[in-house]
Structures are given as C-alpha cells and as structure tokens.
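Write out structure tokens for OmpA-like domain-containing protein.
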Amino acid sequence: MVPVIEEIDRTAVSAESEKTSELRLAADVNFAKDSAELTDRAREILAASIAQWKDRDIESITVVGHTDSVKGAVDNQKLSEDRAASVAAVLTESLPDASITPSGKGPSAPIADEKDAKGEELEQIRALNRRVEVRVTFAGAKD
C-alpha cells in the first residue's frame, strides 16, 4: 500500500499506510510557547487521529518530542520529554489498552538545518525542528 500523506492546515502532517500511521504535530501551534501544554487545536487533531485509529488493532504507539537548538540541551531535552508525555497522556485517555511509549530527543534529531548557506539562523527553519511525532503500528497488517 502506498502511504497517504495529508497536511492538516499547517499544524500537522499525517502519513498512513496499512501497517503504520504517523502524525507530526508542529510545536509552535500545538503547544503554548516553551511549554508542554497542548492547545485546543492540538487536542482536536489528536481526537481526529484517535477516531481513525480506535477501531484498528494497535500493536504499539511511540511519541517522540523534538526541539530546536536555541536553549540549553538540558532544557530542550526536558521540554521534548514533557511534550511527548502530554501527547501520550491524551492518547492514553482514549486508547487505554494501547502500549504507548513517550520519549524526547531534544535538539538531537533535527529535520532541517537551522542555518542558511551564509550560516545565519532562520526562525522559520528552526520551527520545523520543534515538533512531536506519533507513530502508530498496527498488528497483523502487512507493509
């Protein structure tokens, strides 16, 4: 099955295949600034995703928080862990039988280089690195 990728009003991106579902939440619009508090929009996105996953046989869910490299490594690590835990808590409320593993990577796994060709940092690029990724693996499905 070819993955289906959908952008949800620039706040999230989801990708679906028979075996997995992946959801990437942009931290800038889905969390309060420098906080693990989910916005109402993030809760709506999670609720819509949960509705799609609920009737499937879920093998496991991983939730990984990421940050940019602006603050210190210790602060970023904790923020990434706290954001992943916030998302995992919402998932656990609706999917109590699912095996959910939250973790944080701080700034260690960027998806975009935070500097342009001249070596100048760009806020819009750093924003891409501030995210929470949810990966749901379904039991019994084939790739």
